[in-house]
Amino acid sequence: MASPVPVPEGGTQPVPRAPFNFKAILQQMVQVNASDLHLKVGRPPTLRINGDLSPMPLPALRPEDLSSLAKDIMTPKQVKEFAEFREADFATGVPGIGRFRVNAYQQRGTIAFAVRTIPHHARSMSELHLPAIVEEIALLPRGLVLVTGITGSGKSTTLASMIQLINERRYANIITIEDPIEFLHRDLKCHINQREVGTDTGSFAQALRRVLRQDPDVVLIGEIRDLDTLDTALKAADTGHLVFSTLHTTDATQTINRILSFYPPHQQNEVRYALSSALAAVVSQRLVPRADRPGRVPACEILINTAAVREQIRDLTKTLNIPDLIKEGTVQYGMQSFDQSLMQWYSRGLISYESAVFYATNPSEFALRVQGVAQSSDTSWDDFQKDQTS
């Protein structure tokens, strides 16, 4: 046992450091509406508020703080998984505060945590400021709907709002396969079964092998991570089911190319045909800081699988030209590009010019559009703006 440190004559005993209070930090996280909390040794707890990181006015964390936290919030199975793989994903609920998605991982020999807030209830599409066409996509009878974007772009929140809309409007059997379960859905008109990988099923692949035997109308797959998952999603969508999933891709073009890249060259013709038949829509998101008040709004690129899109996906001799297809389908099908979405928010004063240019796909073209300079042959923006204000 270590001997106590002597106090110099005339000195004062150091004030004992307050113990690490995880519950109080989560409470503060919810109060300031932070999306994420980061915990690592040597740094104070850090919140992400409206997209920006903000350290809390607390002492730097010690290894024992986070080791103790791991024992408190992880199950024995999760502790075993972390010991084996040095990372673990799980959800946890704190009574009176809320639910949180947690990723525990090791860095520089010490444990660290990334904690994300999960709202109690799925928000409506109007609350999320999603385009009206997303509601129509959610209520499609069949097909594969992919919601894409970088980490933290609101994919899970958008999917939850889609499931909630179906729950309010349709009588359907919904099966979700998630890792971990985030939003908890209560049965309204739908019969909803939520399965968590590691708790309710061994793996995505295991759950997906049997999902079509569970009489689903709608299947939600938390994320397409491998070829087996993608194969099952395409098969389910092609056989009359509505399938939702996510990919970590930035736009529709990258999404389609990523799907094709899962397959070897000799299967490209086959998978192109399967994808062109099964795909219903791609919704890609970027969250942009608001200028009028704290918060963010989604800039969305929307691709609908029209006859022209199907033809281009199937044709091995053609290079994908999704931006032109979106321009052609803006008015008739409700498609839109990121830059059109940004222009809508900017013209309404909800985002700044600097933010709009920063998040634009073609910043120079966007800047010219703001200045009123445009190609005379490109009428898609004018039609889009008329459609938005009508």
Blueprint (SSEs and pairs):
Elements: H1 22-31, E1 36-39, E2 46-49, E3 52-55, H2 63-73, H3 76-85, E4 87-94, E5 98-107, E6 110-118, H4 132-138, E7 143-148, H5 155-169, E8 173-178, E9 191-196, H6 204-211, E10 218-221, H7 227-238, E11 242-247, H8 252-261, H9 268-278, E12 279-289, E13 296-304, H10 307-314, H11 322-328, H12 330-333, H13 338-347, H14 353-359, H15 363-370, H16 380-389
Parallel strand pairs: 7-11, 7-12, 8-9, 8-10, 10-11
Antiparallel strand pairs: 1-2, 1-6, 2-3, 4-5, 5-6, 12-13
How would you briefly describe this protein structure?
With 390 residues, the chain is of the alpha/beta class. It has 16 helices and 13 strands. 38% of the residues lie in helices and 22% in strands.
Describe the structure.
Strand 10 (218-221), helix 7 and strand 11 form a beta-alpha-beta unit. The chain has 390 residues and is an alpha/beta fold. The chain contains 16 helices and 13 strands. It has helices spanning 22-31, 63-73, 76-85, 132-138, 155-169, 204-211, 227-238, 252-261, 268-278, 307-314, 322-328, 330-333, 338-347, 353-359, 363-370, 380-389; strands at 36-39, 46-49, 52-55, 87-94, 98-107, 110-118, 143-148, 173-178, 191-196, 218-221, 242-247, 279-289, 296-304. It is globular and about 65 Å long. It has two domains: 22-118, Beta-Lactamase (2-Layer Sandwich), CATH 3.30.450.90; 132-389, 3-Layer(aba) Sandwich (Rossmann fold), CATH 3.40.50.300. Helix 9 packs antiparallel against helix 10 (307-314) and helix 13 packs antiparallel against helix 14.
